[in-house]
Automatic annotation (TrEMBL):
<dbReference type="InterPro" id="IPR051011">
    <property type="entry name" value="Metal_resp_trans_reg"/>
</dbReference>
<dbReference type="Pfam" id="PF12840">
    <property type="entry name" value="HTH_20"/>
</dbReference>
<keyword id="KW-0805">Transcription regulation</keyword>
<dbReference type="InterPro" id="IPR011991">
    <property type="entry name" value="ArsR-like_HTH"/>
</dbReference>
<dbReference type="InterPro" id="IPR036388">
    <property type="entry name" value="WH-like_DNA-bd_sf"/>
</dbReference>
<dbReference type="GO" id="GO:0003677">
    <property type="term" value="F:DNA binding"/>
</dbReference>
<dbReference type="InterPro" id="IPR036390">
    <property type="entry name" value="WH_DNA-bd_sf"/>
</dbReference>
<keyword id="KW-0238">DNA-binding</keyword>
<dbReference type="GO" id="GO:0003700">
    <property type="term" value="F:DNA-binding transcription factor activity"/>
</dbReference>
<protein>
    <submittedName>
        <fullName>ArsR family transcriptional regulator</fullName>
    </submittedName>
</protein>
<keyword id="KW-0804">Transcription</keyword>
<dbReference type="InterPro" id="IPR001845">
    <property type="entry name" value="HTH_ArsR_DNA-bd_dom"/>
</dbReference>
<feature type="domain" description="HTH arsR-type">
    <location>
        <begin position="1"/>
        <end position="95"/>
    </location>
</feature>
Length: 107
């Protein structure tokens, strides 16, 4: 992952509401969620949610697929794993530390 992409992803996740949205999509798995499901689950206004989903998509952390009249949002696990890898790539300068492996989502 390039540094500018990491900065963009971290900036998107630095907002509490966007972090909640992203975590809900990670939990939902590859089935993803409709915006109405996310709004109900997180108890957030749909107009507000739309803004946050757009920001997460722009940062590459969320994908959107149109199925008929519905939009399905999913976490972009490849980008999430790339960000985790970028953050832990040179962990502890090559010495032993508490983190022994980079956690990866099997999705």
């Amino acid at each position: 992952m390039h540094e500018s992409l990491a900065v963009s992803a971290l900036a998107a996740l630095a907002h509490a509401q966007r972090l909640r949205v992203f975590r809900a999509l990670v939990v939902a798995g590859m089935d993803g969620l409709l915006p109405s499901q996310l709004a109900d689950q997180l108890k957030v206004a749909r107009s507000n949610l739309s803004f946050h989903l757009k920001e997460l998509a722009t940062a590459g952390l969320v994908t959107v697929e149109q199925q008929g009249r519905n939009l399905i949002y999913r976490a972009a696990y490849d980008q999430m794993n790339a960000l985790l890898g970028y953050l832990t790539e040179h962990c502890c300068a090559g010495t032993d530390c508490a983190v022994t492996t980079t956690p990866r989502c099997p999705c």
